[in-house]
Every structure is written in C-alpha cells, then in structure tokens.
C-alpha cells in the first residue's frame, strides 16, 4: 500500500481504487492518466458525471502534471477564477516529455495551475488568507 498525502491508501497492484481517510473506497475513473500539464479546469468527460458509476465528491481522476504545478480544490475555484479573469489564462503548451511529469489523482471541476504560474497564484491566495494544501477539516 502507498499513502497519499491527503487521500488515503492506494493499492499498488491495481491502482483502480483507494481508501479515503474516512474509510470510503473510491473507484478511479480510468486506468490511464490524462495529460493536464497544460493547466486549466479539469472537465468531466462524456459519461463520467454519473453518481451510480463514479464518485462525485472525492479525487478520482488520474492526471499527469509537471512537478511544481498547483491543484486548486473546488472550494476556492471561484476565487482563482476571479484572478484568472484579471490576469488572463494560466495555461502553457502541453508537456510531452514523460520524465517531467508525475501522476496525481484529482477531481473534475478543480483547476490545474502549471508550475510557471504557481508562485504568483500562491501569492494571490496567501493575500486572501489561503495556504495550499487546505487541511481536510477546513474544507467543510
């Protein structure tokens, strides 16, 4: 078993489920990660937004990100969207070199901020009293 920093346990042999800190088994939506190194909002793919098929409230989507990228959790997406409206898109060309990418489990409707813009977004969030990662207790 591998411990996720904030997510729970992931089974090494399947990587198709993990156990949340509250003991819930969360099924991952796919066996292969999607490259989101370019940044932007994580979208629900066709047929994924289905409470009978996929978990709608836990991290369950495999993505590839550049080390140093930020994942903006749903509760602060509106704040970051206001920042994006002021500054313009926080995206870069997709990184194709797999040695520069790591697999991360996220959830749809979160925002990926590429490493290039991570510091300025962190500064913006700090000015609003937010430090990432947000402790689980503060999300509710």
Q: Any descriptors?
A:
140 residues, alpha+beta, 4-stranded antiparallel β-sheet, 3-stranded mixed β-sheet, 2 helices, 17% helix, disordered N terminus
What does this structure look like?
By secondary structure, this protein is an alpha+beta fold. It has one domain (33-139). 17% of the residues lie in helices and 23% in strands. The protein contains two helices and ten strands. The strands form three sheets. Strands 1-2-3-4 form a four-stranded antiparallel sheet, with no helix packed on it. Strands 5-7-9 form a three-stranded mixed sheet, with no helix packed on it. The longest helix is centred in the C-terminal third of the chain and has 13 residues, at 115-127. It is globular and about 40 Å long. It starts with a strand and ends in a 13-residue tail after the last helix. Mean pLDDT is 83; it is low at 1-14.
